[in-house]
Amino acid sequence: VQLQASGGGLVQPGGSLRLSCAASGFTLGDYAIGWFRQYPGKEREGISYAGTRGGFTYHADSVKGRFTISRDNAKNTVYLQMNVLKAEDTAVYYCAARRSDRDYFFSPRNYDYWGQGTLVTVSS
Q1: 99 phi-psi bin (left φ>0, alpha ψ -120 to 50, beta other)
Q2: Which residue, among 116, 118, 98, 117, has the nearest Cα to 108 in the 3D structure?
Q3: I need a surface site. Which of 6, 41, 48, 89 has the fewest CB within 10 A?
Q4: At 116, is the secondary structure helix, strand, or coil?
Q5: What letters, b where the CB count within 10 A reaches 16 and e where it falls short, cover 35-73?
Q6: CA atoms within a 13 Å half-sphere pointing along the CA-CB vector of 20
Q7: What does DSSP say about strands 118-122 and 9-11: parallel, antiparallel, or unpaired?
Q8: Residues 86, 88, 89, 90: is their CA dihedral positive or negative?
Q9: pLDDT tens digits along 16-47
Q10: What pLDDT does 52 receive?
Q11: What percent of the chain lies above the pLDDT cut of 70?
């Protein structure tokens, strides 16, 4: 069972990146997905969430209107499209999966599987 996050890199302010989170060993469509980011010395914060039912998605206020979470069940992959990137979006980004839709979805301890982080740097 593995989650593989990719797509990070260096981008200028105002630019876009798409992060991918590919699953192996389990069916990602059966799981709720969260994207988190972590600044140096800080705890991981939840930014985007896709539930298991009805296409529910949620984005934190800090990224709402700029980031979009989506699924491609055929590819067993979840994406995070990030637009209008700002310097304060610079962080290590993680994807995570959980079988249950219960409990607070931006609490890292409520997740079963984690991908490795991918670094996003927004700088001119």
Answers
A1: alpha
A2: 98
A3: 41
A4: coil
A5: bbbeeeeeebebbbbbbeeeeeeebbeebeeebbbebee
A6: 10
A7: parallel
A8: positive
A9: 999 999 999 999 989 999 999 999 999 999 99
A10: 85
A11: 99
* Dist CA 81 CA 47 (whole Å): 12
Token readout for 113 is 């599987």
CA distance 49 to 68: 9
Length of the chain equals 124
Round to whole Å and give the CA distance between 41 and 62. 19
Q: Closest by alpha carbon to 95, among 25, 28, 17, 35? A: 35
Average pLDDT, the chain: 95
Closest CA to 60 of 35, 84, 28, 33: 35
Measure the CA–CA gap between 68 and 122, rounded to whole angstroms: 18
Instruction: Give the Cα separation of 3 and 54 in Å (integer).
Output: 23
Phi, psi of 109 (to 5 degrees): -70, -10
